[in-house]
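Morning run. Coffee first, then this:
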Amino acid sequence: MKEIILDHYRNELALFQKATDAEKRWEHLARAHILSQYYAWPHLYIHWKMFLYAVQTLNHRELLGQIPRLILAIPGSLSKKAPKGNTGLSNIGIFTPMEIPEDLKEILK
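And here it is:
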């Protein structure tokens, strides 16, 4: 993972930890997911964090949605088949590409 991407990835994780609003916390995990999609271990780690947060918040839909994502994270990263911009959350199809936020586009260049 390039240093600039890693720095922003870590920052999103730190912001996730600091946030008190559940929606904001999911947003930071989603942004970290976008940054990590093409790096196998960070990508898997974000899905693990999403799974754990779903358990913590008793979000059953998200918890169940993270199980196949945990299984597919490493193969998706290694094969470069992860859908660009996908937030990794279960309210979005697992293979659905999405528009990358402008600030993250700059980091991913």
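The chain is about 70% helix and 0% strand. Good start to the day.
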